[in-house]
């Protein structure tokens, strides 16, 4: 049957059309029709289109999610051009998400792209009912806590990610999350046979919300504490700085002493060690925390973007609660 001179797409299993099967052939071979079908039905909200969000947007739109809504009330600045590859110099002064919309849409016309400007929507619990997954990027610690409290209550998948200089973090709360992994069948003694079959194994994990993760005390041995990435300690200090400064990030090296003072009280309370090299770390963060670095944004955005797709598709183990 044809309509307006065009043949209607022929549906394959799970409701994916032949045209979609051809477009997404390689990834369907990778994670299967069922996972692809889950993604194509998913509605995602992404907040703040800076460097990391730009990379996430590229990855999930190309993969074929159902719809992407981008919430951003900020105008394009010259600094945005360094990491915002959807933006052009002529866009400076225009709304950041609105300026990028047409170029994002060109990546995949099958994905519905919507732009929102009213940040007060994030305080409305009913607003989240239309989305399957919410991702905050480069947001204040208080906004992350507030939004995640609502999404956790509603059983929505949630991510928060951001960069501070050349470092960054990712947090996820997927609620009661089930996923599958593939692993090779093993002999009773744990070894692999030459003709080992691939087994599909169902796993599940119960996530806590951001506030609970923040309150966690790291009861580690001194040896294990020394092995922790200093970026994690710096992240907790940075978040406490934001709490004390209305969500602002450090703007210059003069703030390093304030970060060090915060670390003196914050880190021991969390069971973390005040490493001797943290002062140098604080100086670097104080200089660079407000800026996006393309390599950092590309790596972190790629990791989070892939994890979002895995979460939507119900495949592979998700990120740890907080990664820095």
From TrEMBL:
Domain THIF-type NAD/FAD binding fold span(s) in chain numbering: 24-316
GO BP, sorted A to Z: protein sumoylation
Principal place of residence: nucleus
Name the record gives this protein: Ubiquitin-like 1-activating enzyme E1A
Cellular localization per UniProt: Nucleus
Signal peptide bounds: none
UniProt-listed Pfam families: ThiF
The UniProt record lists the keyword Membrane: no
PANTHER family named among the record's database cross-references: SUMO-ACTIVATING ENZYME SUBUNIT 1, UBIQUITIN-ACTIVATING ENZYME E1
Pathway it works in: Protein modification; protein sumoylation
Tagged with keyword Nucleus: yes
A GO cellular component entry from the record: SUMO activating enzyme complex
InterPro entries from the UniProt entry: ThiF/MoeB/HesA, ThiF_NAD_FAD-bd, Ubiquitin-activating_enz, UBQ/SUMO-activ_enz_E1-like
Organism: Mixia osmundae (strain CBS 9802 / IAM 14324 / JCM 22182 / KY 12970)
The family this protein is said to belong to: Belongs to the ubiquitin-activating E1 family.
An example Gene Ontology molecular-function term: SUMO activating enzyme activity
Keywords: Nucleus, Ubl conjugation pathway
């Amino acid at each position: 049957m044809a309509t307006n001179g065009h043949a209607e797409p022929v549906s394959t299993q799970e409701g994916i059309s032949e045209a979609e099967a051809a477009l997404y052939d390689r990834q369907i071979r990778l994670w299967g029709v069922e996972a692809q079908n889950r993604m194509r039905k998913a509605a995602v909200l992404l907040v703040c289109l800076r460097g990391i969000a730009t990379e996430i947007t590229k990855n999930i739109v190309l993969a074929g999610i159902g719809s992407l809504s981008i919430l951003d009330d900020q105008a394009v600045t010259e600094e945005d051009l360094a990491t915002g590859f959807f933006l052009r110099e002529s866009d400076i002064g225009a709304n950041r998400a609105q300026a990028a919309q047409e170029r994002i849409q060109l990546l995949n016309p099958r994905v519905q792209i919507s732009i929102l400007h009213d940040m007060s929507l994030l305080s409305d619990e009913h607003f989240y009912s239309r989305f399957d997954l919410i991702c905050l990027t480069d947001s204040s610690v208080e906004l992350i806590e507030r939004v995640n409290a609502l999404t956790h209550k509603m059983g929505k998948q949630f991510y928060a990610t951001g960069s501070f200089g050349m470092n960054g973090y990712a947090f996820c709360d997927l609620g009661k999350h089930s996923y599958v992994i593939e692993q090779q069948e093993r002999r009773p003694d744990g070894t692999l046979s030459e003709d080992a079959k691939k087994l599909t194994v169902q796993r599940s994990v119960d996530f806590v919300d951001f506030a609970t993760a923040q309150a966690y005390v790291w009861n580690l041995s001194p040896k294990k504490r020394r092995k922790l990435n200093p970026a994690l300690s710096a992240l907790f200090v940075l978040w406490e700085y934001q709490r004390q400064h209305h969500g602002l990030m450090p703007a210059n090296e003069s703030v390093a002493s304030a970060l060090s003072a915060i670390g003196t009280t914050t880190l021991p309370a969390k069971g973390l060690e005040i490493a001797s090299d943290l002062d140098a770390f604080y100086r670097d963060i104080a200089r660079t925390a407000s800026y996006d670095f393309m390599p950092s944004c590309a790596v972190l955005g790629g990791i989070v973007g892939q994890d979002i797709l895995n979460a939507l598709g119900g495949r592979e183990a998700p990120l740890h609660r907080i990664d820095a």
